[in-house]
Design brief:
alpha+beta, 15% strand
Length: 387
């Protein structure tokens, strides 16, 4: 794999350094964390000390001064080493980006240094049980009460709330001019009265757990609101586009890891005279998966570059396409890797079986592939909306 044509020397150096960090931890560390019910705290802390968690955040707040492109490199390489950090998608990519772009000076000073160093973590709460992929049906609402806000609602499938110091919650407020509800973002401290969580049991091998959140008249100060009350979707998608790009990085790293393990096995495994990798029935599917992963990588970095250049509309289209392509490529890569190893592909020793369910996550979260196809159908191709 070569990124010479699309990356700067600094980005290539970052990729090399993060790959070395990932190699020191690897899949065995990740699997042990899952088996023992632990978090990948050691890897998170070291990545923070090395400056990798905040590469996208402003230098004046302790970040690396880069963009989503650099953070994408970090997550992809850790994933390719078998030890992805899911909270990279949430804490620095979504929450850090939103606060850096729209937060007050006080909010930036309070949150960005910790997010950049990894000493502070933030979760992101948008998904609701009855809204599905329709952000216009969110029922979590915020209303003014004197100088405060009162936030009420439910969220589901929220990652990492147990280790997060706060959660950036997507609620809706009433537009005084139209009476219609519009999305707004609020920082909710983990210990805020009325803010409770319940773990959702999941059949996914991941150190990060999923939670249902209940907000029962959570009282928030006026400065808990991030950005302009009237900005609406602009601020929301400032976080959702990086989320899609980073989800693509998560999937591509996983796909690269699976292909690498399969290739290594196919080079050495002998059933007849030659290694099984000499047979086209084994070699060609792996080659096809490698091509699909590389094509998805190109779209992912296109989306990241567009976002970093300030082209939110172009980044939105590319981010959706990248997420779709990466998820499909990862699912096929993992499936082919397991198939290449046969029975060994389902054993704990080789560490591929757990990726079967993990790879499918990218197909359904944070937005389903069907909703992406809807987006491309009517936004890119100009076809009528079906909903």
């Amino acid at each position: 794999m070569s990124s010479t044509l699309i990356e700067t020397p600094e980005q290539r150096a970052l990729r090399t350094a993060v790959a070395a960090l990932g190699a020191r931890y690897g899949r065995a560390y990740f699997a042990a964390s899952v088996r023992d019910g632990k978090h990948t705290d050691e890897l998170w802390a070291e990545a923070g000390k090395l400056g990798y968690l905040g590469v996208n955040l402003p230098e004046e707040y302790g970040g690396g001064g880069g963009g989503i492109t650099e953070l994408t490199i970090v997550l992809e390489e850790l994933g390719a080493a078998g030890c992805p950090l899911l909270l990279l998608v949430v804490s620095p990519a979504i929450c850090g980006t939103v606060i850096a772009r729209f937060g007050t000076d006080a909010q930036k000073r309070a949150w960005l240094p910790g997010l950049a160093a990894g000493t502070t973590r933030m979760a992101f709460g948008i998904t609701e049980p009855d809204a599905g992929s329709n952000s216009h049906r969110l029922t979590t609402t915020a209303r003014r009460d004197g100088g405060d806000w009162l936030l009420t609602g439910r969220k589901v499938f929220i990652s990492g709330v147990d280790v997060a110091d706060a959660t950036l919650i997507v609620g809706r407020t009433e537009d005084a001019r139209t009476g219609r509800l519009k999305p707004c973002l609020f920082i909710v401290d983990r210990d805020a009265p009325g803010f409770t969580r319940r773990r959702i049991p999941m059949d996914i091998a991941s150190p990060e757990k999923q939670f249902e959140l209940v907000l029962d008249e959570v009282r928030l100060p006026a400065d808990a609101l991030v950005g302009d009350e009237d900005a609406g979707l602009l601020q929301l998608f400032a976080g959702l586009n990086p989320e899609r790009v980073m989800t693509a990085a998560f999937a591509i790293g996983m796909g690269r890891y699976a292909i690498a393990r399969a290739v290594e096995y196919a080079r050495d495994r002998r059933v007849w005279d030659e290694p099984i990798g000499a047979h086209q029935a084994v070699a060609h599917p792996l080659a096809r998966s490698h091509i699909e992963i590389e094509l998805a990588r190109l779209m992912m970095y296109k989306a990241a570059h567009l976002y970093d250049a300030g082209d939110d509309e172009g980044a939105g289209e590319a981010a959706n396409m990248a997420k779709y392509a990466a998820a499909e490529a990862a699912v096929r890569a993992v499936d082919q890797a397991v198939h290449t190893l046969g029975g060994n592909g389902l054993s704990s020793e080789f560490g591929l079986a757990s990726l079967i369910t993990a790879a499918r996550v990218a197909r359904v979260a944070p937005v389903s592939r069907e909703m992406i196809l809807n987006y491309v159908s009517h936004r890119t191709l100009g076809l009528p909306k079906s909903y």
